Amino acid sequence: MLGDKDAFEELFKSVETAYAEMDTVFTTNGLLGMETPGQDARMREGASGLYLDVFATKVFPFEFDDVATAVWNHFRGNDKHNGVVYENATKNLETSSDIIMEAFTMEVMDRKSRASFRNKQVVRRFVEADRQVVVWVGRGHGLQHTNSPFSSFGFVEKGYVVTKRPTSLTPGHDGFTIVQMCTLSLPQMAAGCSIDRTAAGEFTEFVMNVIAASASASQELIENVLLEQTLKKRQEIHVLPSS
Question: What is the CATH number of domain 5-238?
Answer without folding.
Answer: 3.30.530.20
